[in-house]
């Protein structure tokens, strides 16, 4: 996939992040993905993906003060960026159009799996 199109897991992470209603930690995004998809990727995989989304401009990261309870590690909070929102809306439009056509296939129909 090109830089302008997130891969499948990037899309899932972006959507889980968008569902945090503001900012979320990597752990919060991980828990949302696990709950909604049943996928149990590692928390590290989510953090790596969040970093990649920040690099691509689809998410923003705020580093908070070092937390002595966390061994001095800074806590990071992530949020969907305006560019990330545009990207998700564009992808949803594309998928909605494809699904509209695909549901004409009798094997798919209109019902849930």
Q: Would you tell me the overall average pLDDT?
A: 89
Which superfamily, in CATH terms, is the homologous superfamily?
Winged helix-like DNA-binding domain superfamily/Winged helix DNA-binding domain
State the assembly state of the protein chains.
Answer: single chain
How would you write the strand order of the largest sheet? 1-3-2
How many domains, as an integer?
Answer: 1
Question: How many angstroms separate the termini?
Answer: 27 Å
Order of helices and strands: HEHHEEH
* CATH class placement: Mainly Alpha
Calculate Rg over CA atoms: 16 Å
Instruction: Indicate the percent of residues in helices.
Output: 40-55%
| Class of secondary structure makeup | alpha+beta
CATH-defined fold name: Arc Repressor Mutant, subunit A
Query: How would a textbook summarize the main sheet?
Result: 3 strands, antiparallel
The dominant shape is elongated
- Count of individual beta strands: 3
Low-confidence stretches: none
Instruction: Enumerate how many helices there are, as a single number.
Output: 4
Strand content: 15-25%
CATH architecture heading: Orthogonal Bundle
Describe the structure.
With 113 residues, the protein is an alpha+beta fold. It has one domain: Orthogonal Bundle (Arc Repressor Mutant, subunit A). Helices cover 50% and strands 15% of the residues. The protein contains four helices and three strands. The chain has helices spanning 8-18, 26-37, 43-55, 82-102; strands at 23-24, 59-66, 74-80. Strands 1-3-2 form a three-stranded antiparallel β-sheet. A hairpin with a 7-residue loop joins strand 2 and strand 3 (74-80). The longest helix is centred in the C-terminal third of the chain and has 21 residues, at 82-102. The protein is elongated. The model has no long low-confidence stretch (mean pLDDT 89).
């Amino acid at each position: 996939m090109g830089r302008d199109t997130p891969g499948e897991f990037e899309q899932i992470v972006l959507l889980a992040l968008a569902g945090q209603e503001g900012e979320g930690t990597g752990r919060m995004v991980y828990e949302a993905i696990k709950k909604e998809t049943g996928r149990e990727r590692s928390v590290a995989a989510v953090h790596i993906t969040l970093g990649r989304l920040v690099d691509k401009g689809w998410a923003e990261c705020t580093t908070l003060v070092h937390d002595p309870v966390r061994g001095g590690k800074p806590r990071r909070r992530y949020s969907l960026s305006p560019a990330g929102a545009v990207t998700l809306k564009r992808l949803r439009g594309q998928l909605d159009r494809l699904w509209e056509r695909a549901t004409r296939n009798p094997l798919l129909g209109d019902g849930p799996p």
